[in-house]
Structures are given as structure tokens and as C-alpha cells.
């Protein structure tokens, strides 16, 4: 990763996130006058998409942004706008859209659109398949598929084993959407991309050398389009000339290959990879089992098998013990809870506290309470009882002793969140078991999917190691296995795997029906009459404000003091410091990012295809996204012709690889004597991130011209817009912090540099000479710019 370029992206992201979250802007995309913002481009005739969708797509495209640049002669605006909008409409299912652009006096245009007929994806016809199973290939192209770098593992739901794709670190990997999504709108002009997807599918089938041709054939009669796949040449099947086994200390490579029935020269496809992985998963010996085939263009290559042993479990040549087999049955019994309509809860007790986690297909509840009586009503004011609940509609955070709650309605959330609960053997010698809660988020979900899905994930390797833990005492009597290790005790039915009892010194598991619904009813009753602190536009800000409110903070402090009696970390100074910073809207940019990411564009987005999207890495793609976002918001941050606008625009254009006019703009900034030291410093810093030698010239000029008067002049320009109002409010909040409050922030990990900055900001006063913050700015600029000049 290019750290300097990524820093540039982060700086721009923080700056441009402000307008979407700024209370002084009613609509950050519409300026007061059409000529001042993107509202100068108007649309007529569009029906499928709103003006906002079309405008947002245009100003997210680098070509359009370059055509509308102040240094552009604007002669290409018409051609670029018409070309991009037609591409966007064809990408959204319209076969023959017509777009006409007429320029206006305010530097914009009126864009007339005739959308025409819209088509959906219809049947697939595969021609020329002999060795390849055409029906199976058709299913592969019309269903979600795993990413190239994903590995198959498995999960058991309702008695059925389902493939679960993970990355190299074992985290869930979201699937790729279908190549040809039946019933969705056709993406015309994508034959080349579709052909690449077909080739990728044929690689999964073991035919890497196959040659294909793809055609989209629309039918005006029923408004569907047929995907025709011509397999021009199938070629030979893929072959693993070498098989490499790594990572296992318990088994030799030959032992693993003998167990799997593999030898060099074997034909390889995704079915074989999945079968190998399933064997390794089923055997319960390996906590990691990644199988990947590295092939050349002809399809010949090396099959890599990466393994990691479960401690104590015997090698493949030896059978598992009877105790391990019973533990395996207990795992299968737990995996079938949903089929039986049962929920599982785990309660941890320590220092007079209880933490209960309830897993159900209906959702997940995490509850922290300070009493030992779980039957006390949640609306009791005598005890601290904090509940976090995910269900099919809401995320709820409620404290029994608080008159307010925080509850977010997830039904408008375009994406989906998957929560996984895992119970497994502990790798540490001094622990018996572990419980992990993990989650993954996807920005899109289908119409029938729930926003939250809670599942159990228990693999054979998670449970086989229980039987081989040191110090485990096992007794079998009357069909029941009792396993005891220090304070841990499990009682399991030998024949069925049913868990009768599982508890330890600090934890206990309970399995029975309707636990989630009963606790949810109590939480819902506790919510009645409470004020909801959640605000859709400020999710992060309102969440922290709710947590640090006096009624919640007293309970959180009580919990901390019980759990860590010797650590004076959470005190009233920390609560007041966080409250001041939250009230000062420090987190509003983060709010904007969360809202922007969560809402998306709905189920029918308008997107202009990006020809370069598939050719860049994830980091570069993220940087380009930040650049596009910054260019869209720039007119709402700063006035046209001001130095902050010029600097921000050029920084973002460089990020989207459209810095055609950047050199000319920088020369103009340097030649304009009305631009002061803050302008020069901003340019110097951005150029240094891009490793441009000319950065030192801007740095030197900034220091030469730095004085109270020039600083104040530049500061007034910078602070004149909405972003300046936000900065002023944040600075005022920092200035109001006391010594104790600043030190409390330092105690929870805030860096020494930031703490020093907070002290300096607080001590500044507007003395009428240099204006607010001159001494701080002078010291900071001398340090940063001096470093740039020494490079």
C-alpha cells in the first residue's frame, strides 16, 4: 500500500465528509444558485431515475469532472455528458436511449432524455459444449459465486451441510453476484466483461484454456435478452503436476495425500477443490485447510494445500477416540438447534456481574447486568442492566435505569449484517473453551433477505480438540458422558450428542426453546415510554452521547470498578470530555460516512460503468472513490475561485487520475500574492504526499510569508464556508476541555502529540494580533514544512 497516497485520501475524505453531516446545509448537493454548484445541470424526460441519481452519477465520473474543470474550455462537456449518460442507461437495461445536451448561460446544461425500452436478463443458451456440462455451466453463471481468493469451508444448518466461503484468515467472504442475474436489468455493452466471467467459470470447471464468445440478444416482444455463450474451443482439462502440502506438524505430506487419495497428474476443478476441503473439514484434525490451484495459461500447475493442526488431536492414520466422537455428536446436536426451534444462551458471572449472550435464528441479544437475579424486571431502577439486541427490524441499546434508549430502525438499511456465534476448544493450556462473536457486512441485500442474520458456526475441528485437553477426566455411565476439567463440566448423551449440562466456575450454557423471544419481550417492555436518542443523520454521535449520558455512565463505571477494582481508568472527567467533544460535533464526518455507506442507492441504482474498475487494486479503488466523493462535495464546501477550492479540487482530481490541469493551477496559486501561507502550506503538504520535489518551494514560501496578518487573511477564507463553521465548533469544544479531561483522554490511548495539541488549542486566545490559533499554527507549520524542505 502507498502510505502517502492513502494518507492523502484520508485527509480528503475527512474534509469532504463534512457537508453531508453539516447542520448548516439543508441539502449538500443543491447550491443556493445554480451556477454555484452541480444544480446548474438539469434533466428533462427521465422517468426511471431521479435528477439526483443522474446528477450524482455524472459528478462521480472523472471524465465529466475534467470536462467541467474551470481550466477546461468546456467544449467537450456536451459530448462527455451525452456519452456517459447513454452508457449509464445501457448499463441499466435500456437498449436504445437518446440523450441531448443543450448548454445554458450559467455554465451548465439542460439534458433531455428519451429512455426507450428496458430489458431484463432472460435465458442462457450455451453452444459448442462437449466435454463441459452445459446445464451445470448455466447454473454457475446465474447464481452467486465465490471470489477467486476465497476458500470453501462448511456449516451445518437444519441437518444440511452448506458451503461457507472464507478468506485466507478464515473470515467470511461475500460472494460475487451472478454473471447473468435472471430477472434483473440487462447491462448492455458488457460482452467483454461477461466473456471474462465465463472464462473464470470455465476455470472452476477445470478448462482454463477454453476460448469463448459472448453475445447479448434482446427480444423486443417480451423485453428480455438472451445470453448466448459460444464455446469456440474447450481445450484440455487442468492438471496438477505438483501437489504441495504445508503447515501440518502431525502428519507427513504423503499421509495427507494418501488420506485424500491424491497424486500428481490429477485433473483439477472446483469440484475437486471443494471435495478435498470437505474431507479435511470433516476429519476434525485441522483448524485451517486452504486448498488453492495455481495454474498457467494452459491449465497446468500446482495444487497447494495449507493446513494447521488442532493441538493434541492424533494424526490421520490413527482413529479419533470414543470421547472425541461423542464431542462430535454434541457439535452436530448444537448445529441442529434451529431445526428443533431451540436457542442457546451463555451466561458469564464474575465480580457480581452477569454477561448473557442469547443466540437465535431470530436475532442476538447481549445483556450486561450487575445483579445475580436474572428474574428481576428490566425496568427496575435498582440495578444496572444494559441490553444490546439485534432482531429482524431494529438495533436496540437500552439500560433499565435510563429514561432514554438508542434504537435504530434497520428496515431502511440497504445492506445486510451476518452475525456468527462460535463455541470451540481453547488453544491456551489454561483455558478449556472459548466463545467468539464475529460479524460481516454487505452493502447490498436481496428483497427477501433480512437486514440481520444470526447463525451458529461450529466446525469439527472446533470440537475434536476438547477430547484431548490435558487434565480432562471422562466417565461414561447410563448412556451419558461426563467430562470434567478443573471447574469445567460437560454432560453429553452418548447416542444423540444432546448436551444436558455445560458450566464452569464463571460460565454456564442453557439450551431451550423461546429464550430469545422471552428476553425480547422483557426488553420491549423496558423500552416503553423511553425517549429514543437515535437520529438517522447522526448514528455514531447519538450512540456515544447515549452511552456517556449520566444515567448510563454511572452504570458503566460501576461495572468497570467491579471488574477492575485496581484500575482508576473510567472517571467523570472522561465522560465529560467525550460529551464535550461529541456535543462539539467532532464525529459528524464519521456520521456522514456511515449514513452514506448504509443507504447506498436503493435497489435500482444508476451507475455509469467504469472501464478501469477491474484493472486496479482495492487500495487504489478506495482512493479513487474518495476523490470522486470530494469532487462532488467541493462546491458546497468552498466558493469557486478560492484557494481552498482549488487545492481540494486538484488533490481529488489527482486521486482519480485526472490531474491534467494541476500543474497550471499550482503555478497560478503560486503567482497569486493574495494567497497566503496556509495556501502554500496546503499545496506543499499535498505535493509531498505525492513525492513531488517542487513541494519544498511551496514550503519555503509559506514560512517566508507567515505572519499574524497573512495567517489571519488565509484563515478567514478557509473558515468562511460550512466546513469552517464545523471546524470552529470542534476547536471551541477542544478549547473548553480542562486539564483533567485532557489527561483522561490520554489515559485511554490518545497519543501524546494530540494531547499536546489539545493543551495548545485550549490556551490560545484571540489577542487581536494574529487571530485565534496563530501560535499553534506557526509551531505546527514550522515543524511540518521544515521536514518537507529537508527531504
What report would you give on this structure?
This protein is an alpha+beta fold and 791 residues long. It has 26 helices and 27 strands. The strands form six sheets. Strands 22-23-24-25-26-13-14-15-16-17-18-27 form a twelve-stranded mixed sheet, with helices on both faces. It has a four-stranded mixed sheet with strand order 10-9-12-11. Strands 1-3-2 form a three-stranded mixed sheet, with helices on one face. Strand 19 and strand 20 (433-442) form a beta hairpin. Helix 1 packs across helix 18, helix 23 packs across helix 25 (752-763) and helix 24 (739-747) packs antiparallel against helix 25. The two termini are 21 Å apart. The relative contact order is 0.10.
Draw up the topology in text.
Layout: H1 3-16, E1 41-44, H2 51-58, H3 62-67, H4 77-91, E2 98-103, E3 109-114, E4 120-127, H5 134-141, E5 151-157, E6 160-166, H6 191-204, E7 211-219, E8 224-233, E9 239-246, H7 253-260, E10 266-267, H8 270-283, E11 286-295, E12 300-309, H9 322-335, H10 337-340, E13 342-350, E14 353-360, E15 363-369, E16 385-390, E17 394-399, E18 404-409, E19 416-425, E20 433-442, E21 452-456, H11 460-464, E22 473-477, E23 480-485, E24 488-493, E25 499-503, E26 507-513, H12 515-527, E27 531-532, H13 539-547, H14 550-563, H15 572-583, H16 588-599, H17 618-637, H18 643-655, H19 662-671, H20 677-689, H21 695-705, H22 708-718, H23 722-735, H24 739-747, H25 752-763, H26 774-790
Parallel strand pairs: 1-3, 4-8, 9-12, 18-27, 19-21
Antiparallel strand pairs: 2-3, 5-6, 7-8, 9-10, 11-12, 13-14, 13-26, 14-15, 15-16, 16-17, 17-18, 19-20, 22-23, 23-24, 24-25, 25-26
Helix pairs in contact: 1-17, 1-18, 13-15, 15-24, 17-18, 18-19, 18-20, 20-21, 20-26, 21-26, 23-25, 24-25
